[in-house]
Write a sequence for this structure.
């Protein structure tokens, strides 16, 4: 599946936040934000706590099994993020593009806007079926299914192999 390139990095940031350790400290959160090319990624303990709370709200979008529930949750998150779209053109860039928060907004506010709109782009482009949670019991990892057929069930080959090997062994025992 082709995801809008402007929305994909934001949706990937949402995945990264949701999959982050709930005990992430400010330096680790800063590294995560830096990895996803967030401007001014340094955050303090309070901002880290706010981002982890936001990640818990984002998780609900991935866990929703019904498109209407997913849309309703996303609409609430878009409202909470207080999106303020603007058209931007950076130095040296000819093509203008949308920003969903102001450059002067706090890191937390910008991350909320980026992740909510990124997931909204994925839901609108895919009909909502491309956001998923790993199907292996005990794994809480979320993902965006970018496969051609849209039938991904596991977060990684490792999780899939554990299930397939366990199923194979169970069949051989009987």
């Amino acid at each position: 599946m082709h995801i809008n390139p402007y929305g994909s990095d934001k949706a990937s940031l949402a995945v990264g936040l949701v999959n982050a350790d709930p005990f992430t400290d400010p330096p680790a959160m800063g590294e995560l934000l830096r990895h996803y090319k967030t401007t001014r990624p340094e955050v303090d303990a309070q901002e880290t706590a706010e981002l982890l709370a936001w990640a818990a709200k984002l998780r609900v979008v991935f866990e929703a099994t019904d498109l209407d529930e997913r849309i309703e949750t996303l609409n609430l998150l878009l409202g909470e993020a207080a999106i303020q779209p603007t058209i931007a053109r950076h130095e040296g860039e000819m093509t203008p593009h949308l920003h969903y928060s102001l450059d002067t907004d706090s890191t937390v506010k910008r991350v909320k806007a980026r992740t909510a709109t990124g997931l909204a782009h994925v839901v609108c482009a895919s009909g909502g079926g491309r956001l998923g949670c790993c199907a292996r019991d005990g794994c809480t990892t979320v993902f965006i299914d970018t496969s051609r057929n849209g039938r991904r069930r596991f977060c990684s080959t490792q999780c899939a192999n554990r299930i397939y090997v366990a199923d194979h062994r169970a069949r051989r025992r009987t």
